[in-house]
Specification:
The protein is built from 4 helices and 10 strands, in the order H-H-E-E-H-E-E-E-E-E-E-E-E-H. The chain is of the alpha+beta class. The strands form 3 sheets. Strands 4-10-9-6-7 form a 5-stranded mixed beta sheet, with no helix packed on it. The protein has a 3-stranded antiparallel beta sheet with strand order 3-5-8, with no helix packed on it. A two-stranded antiparallel sheet has the order 1-2. The longest helix has 28 residues. The relative contact order is 0.10.
């Protein structure tokens, strides 16, 4: 099968599958033509042009591939996935800190807001990392959103912060102090008996 026949077949296939398929088809054509020219030796016979060196045939076969590749890369939109948080549901924190993780193909901007419409949003982070540690948050509900460089936004992530009550913290500290004093008294009494 000649290189021209391969080109005609792949042009028809490429029209059906889109521009990216055309690029792949031309790459396949170029590799087949180069392999054909290697099998036939240093000279390849063409119908109209007579004989030509194999290197010329290989270069001529690759020229449409590179031209088409540049057209496809300029005209085809990039189908990158939108940034998304690793944890989908509302996050609850009773300490005022949490680690927020996400997946994104490139750099993102992390926004934090108190309102779900993000009218009071502030940017916390901008860069290519895939996680951010939030700390020092007061009680309340926070909303987080990721945006990539193209402006594509992720789904909103809700973060509920409800610190433990001060009364409970004081009771636990008092109980800890009582256990500490009991241990110290036991150690001192044991040391005095010996």
């Amino acid at each position: 099968m000649s290189c021209e026949t391969h080109q005609q077949e792949h042009r028809q296939d490429g029209r059906q599958d889109g521009k990216r398929q055309i690029f792949l088809a031309y790459a396949d054509i170029a590799s087949r033509c180069v392999n054909t020219s290697r099998r036939l030796g240093s000279r390849v016979h063409f119908k109209r042009r007579g004989t030509a060196p194999a290197r010329f045939v290989a270069r001529a076969a690759l020229l449409p591939v590179f031209a088409l590749a540049s057209l496809v890369s300029l005209s085809a939109p990039a189908y990158a996935e939108a940034p998304a948080f690793s944890d989908a549901g509302p996050i609850a924190s009773d300490t005022g800190y949490t680690l927020v993780q996400w997946s994104a193909p490139g750099a993102v901007t992390l926004d934090l807001a108190h309102r779900p419409d993000f009218s009071d949003a502030r940017t916390l982070y901008s860069g290519a990392n895939s996680a951010y540690f939030l700390s020092g948050l007061a009680d309340g509900t926070y909303y987080l959103k990721l945006r990539d460089e193209a402006g594509t936004a992720s789904a909103t992530l809700e973060l509920d912060v409800a610190h433990q009550s001060l009364t409970r913290a004081l009771w636990l500290a008092g109980l800890g102090a009582l256990v500490f004093l009991a241990i110290v008294a036991t150690i001192l009494r044991g040391a005095r008996d010996e």
